[in-house]
Design goal:
The mean pLDDT is 88. The protein is 2% helix and 48% strand. By secondary structure, the protein is mostly beta strands. Strand 4 and strand 5 form a beta hairpin. The longest helix has 4 residues. Strands 1-15-14-3-8-9-10 form a seven-stranded mixed sheet, with no helix packed on it. A seven-stranded mixed sheet has the order 7-6-5-4-11-2-16, with no helix packed on it.
Length: 199
């Protein structure tokens, strides 16, 4: 496990017409009342996408579209220290479904804790810049915004929003697949741009 103010991945998977599937494991330390917290994001201003926890502690996914930003939340507020997987399906074209599912971490075959989806009427506005773990964006290219408080890890991104969300089946699915099986403890109290980790 690494300690960092955020993790930066410079070659972010792009979102094509098929959209993307994102799976990220999180363990929030302070899910309620800290403000919006992005566990994983490829976003800048109102462009791109993000997944994390809202100010109310609920799992949230959002995306910037040509008609403005859209976000949805699912389930009850997460508990401090609760380890879950957030599964997001982000559409690449208008008329696709934006989805968020919350499920127990390492619970193969168990029913989801919560799920929600919405049809999106406008296409995604792609975001330039890096994929970020532990924050939504970087102000002045260095200061984390909407920092996550807790642990973020075990990230999977597939370049097809319709891909299976089961890790074993996904490994054999014919899509572009990006897997990082690491855990980062996000230290949001650290100074602005002190030693981010790059992968």
């Amino acid at each position: 496990m690494i300690d960092a103010p955020y993790v930066r991945v410079d070659r972010a998977p792009s979102v094509g017409a098929a959209g993307i599937l994102v799976i990220v494991e999180v363990r929030p330390a302070t899910p309620v009342g800290y403000g919006p917290q992005a566990a994983l994001a490829h976003a800048l201003d109102a462009a791109g996408w993000w997944i994390g926890v809202g100010d109310d502690g609920r799992a949230t996914v959002g995306m910037g579209t040509t008609a403005g930003p859209v976000s949805i939340a699912a389930g009850d507020p997460l508990e401090a220290g609760e380890r879950v997987e957030l599964v997001a399906r982000i559409p690449g074209r208008a008329g696709g479904r934006l989805e968020i599912t919350v499920r127990p971490a390492d619970a193969v075959g168990e029913s989801p804790i919560a799920a929600r989806s919405a049809v999106i009427g406008a296409p995604l506005v792609p975001s330039p810049g890096p994929l970020l773990w532990g924050c939504r964006a970087l102000r002045d290219r260095s200061v984390p915004e909407h920092s996550f408080v807790g642990e973020v890890g075990r990230v999977v991104v597939a370049t097809d929003s319709a891909a299976p969300d089961d890790r074993a089946r996904l490994a054999w699915h014919p899509v572009g697949l990006f897997v990082w099986d690491r855990v980062a403890r996000i230290n949001a109290a650290r100074g602005a741009a002190q030693h981010p980790v790059s992968w």
